[in-house]
């Protein structure tokens, strides 16, 4: 073990806040390095092999794990793999010799964060601990900040939704049900959680432009004339104008203006085709059709889920995205999914 003076760029106060787990089967090395680490980190836990290390990790939840590789019972990489399977964000630093090429490749595959070569340079080890922990805490702080932004955006969406509800309770209920189905479809498609959040929020205001449509047309108890339908259709551009200036991390304005576009270009307002329509809008578009057909309208009774499924199945690939249709039908076939009373 090589001991050198600690570099000034290391934040010693930060190190004192850390909990570190050190796993090493060689008693002499373990004692020497443990004495050194206890001078710098807040709390140090030790273990003599990977099995004990894994147990200690789940008991103490350290901020950083430092481990040798070759150990009896369970080696360091087996332990690292077990830890990463449940706590991916916890940094693991392995101590390895240059000759241990196969172990080094395994470490990369497992997702080990850093490695320190033997003989151990204590200054480099401290830097590795410091850097790994800083990166983890920075990532955690960024996630917290992102959550605050998302919460703020959800509140903004909630305000818009309540404004719609005050003017037209039917539209508000429709948007909420579309949001439930669109979210479920996106989950069935295994889309990333951040994208699913955007789809849910976009769905909640996809008809926000109806604020500009006269209420007597929205609640008309008969089938609308062509002129009245043309007025209804203006809610897409109106919604886009309301939302286009907002700095959402998702294409909410596009979801609003494109959810009546169709794969073959027969939709409106722009007659977009296929990939020209954002995927979020394709998902909301299918959910919108299903909800509309299964809900009561002032000019007709609810048509039922079977009719809605038949409609999207018939339009699969021509009007509606094939993958979205398939996932929507899978969702609707699940006994535990209901978005209507």
Q: Could you explain the architecture of this structure?
A:
This protein has 15 helices and 5 strands. With 341 residues, the protein is an alpha/beta fold. The protein folds into 2 domains: 12-139, Response regulator (Rossmann fold); 168-333, Orthogonal Bundle (Hypothetical protein af1432). The chain has a 5-stranded parallel beta sheet, sandwiched between helices. It is elongated. The model is unreliable at 3-8 (pLDDT under 50).
List keywords for this structure.
341 residues, alpha/beta, Rossmann fold, Hypothetical protein af1432, 2 domains, disordered N terminus
In short:
The protein is an alpha/beta fold. It folds into two domains: 12-139, Response regulator (Rossmann fold, 3-Layer(aba) Sandwich); 168-333, Hypothetical protein af1432, CATH 1.10.3210. It has helices at 12-15, 27-40, 50-60, 76-86, 101-110, 122-167, 169-188, 193-204, 215-218, 226-233, 235-243, 252-258, 279-294, 305-314, 322-333; strands at 19-23, 43-47, 64-68, 92-96, 114-117.
| Major sheet size, sense and barrel closure | 5 strands, parallel
CATH hierarchy class name of the largest domain:
Mainly Alpha
User: What percent strand?
Assistant: 5-15%
Q: Structural class from helices and strands?
A: alpha/beta
What coarse outline follows from CA principal-axis ratios? elongated
Binned, the helix content reads 55-70%
Instruction: Catalogue the unreliable spans.
Output: 3-8
Ends apart, CA distance between termini: 70 Å
For the residues shown, what is the average pLDDT? 86
The SSE string, one letter per element, is HEHEHEHEHEHHHHHHHHHH
Q: What number of domains? A: 2
Cα-based radius of gyration, to the nearest Å: 29 Å
